[in-house]
Design a protein that fits this description.
Elements: H1 11-30, H2 51-60, H3 63-66, H4 68-82, H5 89-105, H6 108-133, H7 139-219, H8 223-252, H9 269-278, E1 282-288, H10 294-314, E2 319-327, E3 330-338, H11 353-363, E4 367-373, E5 376-384
Helix pairs in contact: 1-2, 1-5, 2-4, 2-5, 4-5, 5-6, 5-7, 6-7, 7-8, 7-10, 9-10, 10-11
Length: 391
């Protein structure tokens, strides 16, 4: 990829032009010329004539980056003029630089054509004179053309390829760094979402129970009822505090392994249901499962836990049923609770419980539904057993 075309000549190009002019004038003043006035090709033997093509070449140098192809065309005309004079070595040197710049800074088509054209001229200018004159020394003309034209063109082509390769490598490195940063940001977002789900599912259950039983303790003037409510409040406070400490410990862990040391399993559903009963829910459990993967176990446990929390806050009086069934490589989770439209929640909620359950199910490639059905609020989740870690 060529660099952007500059709006004005580069200062180094002015320096090259000034150096070429100074060197050419010095050689002219010393009378150093590549040809003699008696040579057949010298059609303009005046001593000052070499200064004209030298001036043309010098004026082309500021165009070497700005308009490289135009500079080469004008420079070629100046070199042709130089060949019919006594000549000046500085003109030849400046012309080689124009060829080099045309390949290095020109467009892709120009960069491809110039080495090919100069290579063909080198061959023709060596073979044709040698064949016509039947003298091997005619090959020296081709050597001269190769030194002046093909050598700088091929050198610039190699440099251009290396420059383009370096630029491509830089762009790939930047793209890789950008993708890595995007992956890191997405990983942080996923981790934060996972901890948010854990925090909501674990702590909301206990806080909801605390809110409901504290309301009962404040509203009923019954010492025994108040004492029982305070006992439930204390138990939920202790368990909730322990869970909070566990999650805070995971957040502070710098080892990179943020999975809970002992994630809840489906074997703990009995204790979860017993806790819901202690909080005042009439819950039945019907669980049938065998060999469920750990990610699916955690998701199913949290879905049941959040559903019981919602039932504690929103359900009408009646029985809550929890059912788990494993069939055909899929774990079916169903939690139903009595539902009456218009009932006021017994405890405030964040409104993120359903979205958290839906996210857990989606991460495992399953399906999730929740809504009223035949007087019941029913939560349904299907969790494929062959999916990976939901985190």
């Amino acid at each position: 990829m060529p660099p952007a075309t500059p709006s004005r000549p580069h200062r180094d190009d002015w320096r090259i032009a000034a150096g070429g002019l100074a060197g050419g004038v010095l050689l002219w003043a010393l009378g150093v010329h590549p040809r003699l006035a008696s040579d057949p090709v010298v059609l303009w033997p005046a001593s000052w004539a070499p200064l004209l093509p030298l001036t043309v070449a010098v004026l082309c140098e500021p165009l070497r980056r700005l308009r490289p192809r135009l500079g080469l065309l004008i420079g070629t005309a100046g070199l042709a003029l130089d060949t019919v004079t006594l000549g000046n070595l500085a003109t030849l040197v400046l012309y080689t630089d124009l060829v080099y710049a045309a390949v290095l800074y020109g467009g892709p088509a120009t960069a491809r054509r110039i080495p090919w054209v100069t290579g063909m001229l080198t061959v023709l200018c060596g073979v044709v004179p040698a064949a016509l004159w039947r003298d091997p020394q005619g090959l020296l003309i081709g050597v001269g053309v190769g030194v002046v034209a093909y050598a700088p063109a091929s050198t610039a082509w190699v440099v251009r390829n290396h420059r383009d390769a370096a630029e491509a490598a830089r762009l790939r490195a930047e793209q890789t760094a950008l993708l890595a940063e995007m992956d890191r940001a997405q990983a942080v977002v996923r981790e934060r979402a996972r901890f948010a789900r854990e925090l909501h599912d674990v702590v909301a259950n206990h806080l909801s129970a605390i809110a409901i039983h504290s309301t009962a303790a404040l509203s009923l003037d019954d010492r025994k009822t108040s004492r029982n409510a305070l006992g439930v409040i204390r138990e939920n406070s202790v368990v909730g505090l322990a869970e909070m400490r566990r999650l805070i410990g995971l957040l502070r862990d710098s080892s990179g392994d943020h999975e809970p040391a002992a994630s809840p399993t489906l074997d703990g559903l009995g204790a979860l249901v017993d806790g819901a009963r202690a909080n005042g829910l009439d819950v039945t459990l019907d669980a049938g499962h065998d060999g469920v993967p750990a990610p699916v176990e955690l998701a199913a446990y949290r879905i049941v836990q959040e559903s019981l929390t919602n039932a504690l806050k929103h359900a009408a009086p009646g029985r809550v049923h929890v059912g788990l069934d494993e069939r055909g490589g899929i774990l079916y989770v169903r939690v139903s609770s009595p539902y009456r439209r218009g009932d006021t929640p017994r405890a405030p909620g964040s409104g993120s419980g359903l979205s958290g359950m839906r996210e857990r199910t989606a991460l495992l490639g399953g399906t999730f539904e929740a809504g009223p059905e035949d007087g019941l609020w029913t939560v349904r989740a299907t969790l494929p057993l062959s999916q990976g870690d939901p985190s």
